[in-house]
Specification:
With about 230 residues, the protein is an alpha/beta fold. It is built from 7 helices and 10 strands.
Length: about 230
């Protein structure tokens, strides 16, 4: 899924002070790429990810997904994009505590009007858990799982509706280095073997360099864009 931003700008006001989160960011992502976005805290990385993911709207500028201009004023259109084309992986996992692993993976499928039956949803969810190596933990609640297991379940959930683009915001930020490497390997495999486009925000420059392209952001501006 191609992604393009044109002069993307985001600012907000804190009292009388204007805070610029993104300043005329222009970039293009081709099919099959795995892009890492790096930069210090407050540089605009997560803001960029949220706008591309239709969770936030720009102040100015445009975003194109698969060649189509995103209309941030059309809430129904944004919901369809998020539901059918985008998958999200967050640093804090964002799993539902009262649901077990397989139910958490199933959850996004209820809102997709693909017409899958209950048994088909369960079968798909179990296949996704198997993909991330957690089919034997299907009936465990989030409170019964480790951080690495929680993040793998979050990745399986992100794949529930077969998205074209995965947006990962610091997916290894709450994990130890060994577990973090396993999560990065899983994301890389999804990119290389499953053909998923991935944009990942990270503070880890060494890990970022292993992906197909690294974008460095500082003070809301792209400072470098390297393959």
């Amino acid at each position: 899924m191609t992604v393009e931003t044109r002069d993307l700008t985001k600012y907000y006001w804190m009292g009388k002070e204007k805070v610029v989160a993104l300043d005329r960011v222009t970039l293009k992502m081709e099919e099959g790429e795995f892009i890492s976005v790096v930069g210090p805290s407050g540089s605009g990385k997560s803001t960029l990810l949220n706008i591309i993911g239709c969770l936030d709207a720009p102040t100015k500028g445009e975003v194109y997904l698969a060649g189509w201009k995103v209309d941030y004023r059309n809430k129904q259109s944004l919901v369809r994009l998020r539901r059918n084309f985008l998958g999200f992986v967050f640093q804090t996992f964002n799993l539902i505590p009262a649901l077990n692993a397989v139910e958490n993976v199933e959850y996004p499928m209820y809102f997709n009007k693909g017409g899958r039956s209950k048994s088909e949803r369960r079968e798909s969810a179990m296949k996704l858990l198997a993909m991330v190596g957690l089919e034997k933990r299907a009936n465990h609640l989030p409170s019964e799982l480790s951080g690495g297991e929680l993040q793998r379940i979050a990745i399986a959930r992100a794949l529930a509706n077969d998205p074209k683009l995965i947006l990962a915001d610091e997916p290894t930020g709450n994990l130890d280095s060994r577990t973090g490497k396993s999560i990065l390997s899983l994301l890389k495999r999804l990119n290389e073997e499953e053909g998923k486009n991935i944009i990942m925000v990270t503070h880890d420059l060494e890990s970022a360099k292993k992906m197909s392209r690294v974008i460095r952001i500082l003070d809301g501006r792209i400072m470098s864009n390297e393959k």
